[in-house]
User: What shape does this take?
Amino acid sequence: MTEAILLVGGKGTRLRPLTVNTPKPMVPAAGVPFLTHQLARARAAGVEHIVLATSYLAEVFEPYFGDGSSLGLRLEYVTENEPLGTGGAIRNVADRLESGPGDPVLIFNGDILTGLDIAGLVATHRSAGADVSLHLTRVEDPRAFGLVPTDADGRVTAFLEKPESPENIVTDQINAGAYVFNRSVIDSIPSDRPVSVERETFPGLLADGAHLQGMVDSTYWLDLGTPQAFVRGSADLVQGRAPSPVVTGRCGDQLVLDGAYVADDAKLTGGTAVSAGAVIGSGAIVDGSTVLQGAVIESGAVISHSLIGAGAVIGARTVLDGAVIGDGARIGADNELRHGARVWCDAVIPDGAVRFSSDQ
Ligand code: GDD
Ligand code: MG
Assistant: This one.
């Protein structure tokens, strides 16, 4: 049996709701709360027991996922009184673990969508005889991540979290947010204060000569910490580019959930997902976007790569590209919002009030 800790929450986390009221792990991605994909992938890899380490809006998880039995899991929830950081959150759930001191425990950042071979990571960990093993991926710009150079055998030589000086940009291999820890390493994390696994635990283990093993796996990987990434991840799930056991068999260009209404001549493309109760009006075009529950897209609106919050209304002929519209916001007709524009929950923009095109 392998068990896992899932980190969801934290003060500094970019999972905070930015313009939608629901915390990001619970926002539907391809029709189900995002966390479902991670839980289902872990279960498919043989994990049976998962402890959710939460610190933020924790009360929304348990009513939805309950004891986990609908996913074939045993789920437990531990809420921090104050955010303890990634390492502190891991240490804080140690007494819920069932593994013995030498047993491997999986740990996942809660905002990652990936096709990682989870069982392969555990196998690598065992065969390397490591204390901790990390999934690594390669990205074009590693600066927003933890940089993890390795030697010829894949052994980690340094851990540099979000390095600021150019001389520390030593590799394009980054920490992909999935680890195997020996149980005894978890127990060695201080229990009485916040701890960052990235800034304190990993560098400390390396300084003490511990064996940290990296496994570079170039499968699908995305940090969904920003709304734009979230929208892309949802579209990739719908289109089958991102693997998830709960999307199997219904991959396509669009996902329209029961109880949504889409006009016959509306066009949904690029992995657009439309939640229950949403309405897509006549002639509207919605590409690569997520339309949440009860939102209304009026006729002729043209929407791409955008997140439309629950109950929001997008007026006729309005153009949205890369926009994030908060729950309950009302965008009047004939507006144009582009390039990461964010409209706060319940805000109102009148008809014909905003455009982004030049006067030429
Ligand atoms: N319970 C709990 N308590 N969880 C926390 C806390 C906390 O105090 N702080 C952060 N987390 C959770 C977040 O919810 C998220 O799932 C995960 O830990 C990572 O935190 P982020 O805030 O998303 O960090 P990041 O994306 O900037 O960087 C992390 O992920 C990168 C990969 O996406 C680091 O692990 C980097 O090294 C890594 O490259
Ligand atoms: Mg993140």
Summary: Confidence is low (pLDDT under 50) at residues 11-19. Residues 7-10, 12-15, 53-55, 80, 83-86, 89, 109-112, 145-146, 161, 174-175, 177, 198, 223, 225 surround guanosine-5'-diphosphate-alpha-D-mannose (ligand 1) (CB under 6 Å).
